[in-house]
């Protein structure tokens, strides 16, 4: 996602829902294997010494992929994918997908899946990382180390002395980083709360529609 897909405050959040009947679904498992080698080497001199064989470690991981095809009430079809979820669904089930994203982008990522036929739902809050402001390690380090330097320069320029301002700048740098991280966490919690509320709203709407029918 690009910079145009970032939610910086809760007022920028937009959510929409796609509801329909499952006409097809595909479940598959994707596996990956990682091989790492460490150690090895040794010392030989005039026929004596030692040799250590390298150690090889193999690890395998797998992810389950769920692809759902929905036919909406207006006849259009929607395809959506979810990774690493044991969510149960089959043809004929009534399903809603909740999307979230910034209002300016007029699009979103699937953050919740509701199966009205089985009364199950699941939230995919890890997908929020793609739409929330990020702070890289380089930026955090720059703020922590760069702020003291800036304070020293300003102290020397304005007061003719840099005594004590370096430590003050270091504290200020840490404070800025902590504030930014705290703001991001609070925003993530607020977005998650809005998504949960939307899921509850969709469930109640479908119940009302089913009873009316």
Question: In words, what does this structure look like?
Answer:
- The longest helix is centred in the C-terminal third of the chain and has 48 residues, at 165-212.
- The chain is flat.
- It has helices spanning 137-159, 165-212; strands spanning 13-45, 48-72, 77-83, 94-102, 109-115, 120-123.
- A hairpin with a 4-residue loop joins β2 and β3.
- The protein is of the alpha+beta class and 213 residues long.
- The mean pLDDT is 78.
- 13% of the residues are buried.
- The protein has one domain (3-32, 59-212).
Question: Top keywords for this entry?
Answer:
2 helices, single chain, 213 residues, 40% strand, alpha+beta
Topology of helices and strands:
Elements: E1 13-45, E2 48-72, E3 77-83, E4 94-102, E5 109-115, E6 120-123, H1 137-159, H2 165-212
Antiparallel strand pairs: 1-2, 1-4, 2-3, 4-5, 5-6
Helix pairs in contact: 1-2
Figure out the total of helices. 2
Helix content: 25-40%
How many angstroms does the end-to-end distance come to? 40 Å
Strand content: 35-45%
Q: What overall geometry do the principal axes of the alpha carbons give? A: flat
User: Topology as H/E string?
Assistant: EEEEEEHH
**What structural class do the secondary elements suggest?**
alpha+beta
Largest sheet entry: 6 strands, antiparallel
Which strand order do you get reading across the main beta sheet?
Answer: 3-2-1-4-5-6
């Amino acid at each position: 996602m690009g910079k145009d897909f970032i939610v910086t405050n809760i007022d920028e959040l937009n959510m929409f829902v796609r509801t329909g009947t499952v006409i097809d679904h595909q479940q598959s498992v994707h596996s990956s294997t990682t091989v790492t080698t460490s150690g090895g080497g040794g010392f030989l001199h005039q026929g004596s010494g030692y040799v250590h064989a390298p150690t090889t470690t193999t690890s395998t991981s797998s992810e389950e992929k769920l692809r759902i095809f929905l036919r909406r009430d207006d006849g259009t079809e929607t395809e959506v994918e979810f990774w690493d979820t044991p969510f149960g669904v089959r043809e004929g089930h009534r399903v809603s997908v909740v999307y979230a994203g910034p209002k300016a982008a007029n699009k979103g990522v699937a953050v919740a899946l509701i199966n009205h036929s089985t009364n199950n739902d699941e939230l995919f809050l890890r997908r929020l990382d793609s739409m929330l402001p990020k702070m890289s390690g380089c930026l955090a380090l720059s703020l922590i180390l760069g702020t003291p330097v800036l304070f020293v320069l300003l102290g020397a320029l304005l007061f003719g002395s840099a005594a004590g301002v370096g430590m003050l700048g270091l504290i200020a740098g840490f404070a800025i980083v902590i504030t930014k991280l705290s703001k991001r966490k609070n925003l993530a919690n607020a977005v998650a709360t809005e998504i949960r509320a939307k899921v509850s709203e969709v469930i109640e709407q479908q119940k009302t529609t089913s009873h009316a029918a």
